[in-house]
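Q: How would the structure tokens look for this protein?
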Amino acid sequence: MRARKTDPATSKDAGENAANFAPCHYRAILLALVDMKDGTADEIAVNCWIDKYQISRRLPEMTKLVRVTTETRLSKKGRPARVWAITKQGLAFLEKGK
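A: Here is the predicted structure in token form.
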């Protein structure tokens, strides 16, 4: 389930269709992380075509492809944000898609 009961219909529709575009999002995020080494959702968004909110939704789904580092950095809003890095499985995912 990618949408909450209280979400508007547009969010529920997007959640139902997420399986169709999630692999494309995964690839964009992973390619950005390869170039960056690691990054927060804000930083990844600067380096790919997906917005921060889409990235924030996808990262927790990508448990084998990315990992949370021990580092945090301030987000654009000045709050501590997780820093993510690509894993060996993430690199393999990219290789498989070539």
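Residues 9-36 form the longest helix (28 residues).

Residues 28 and 39 are 13 Å apart (CA to CA).

Upvote if useful.
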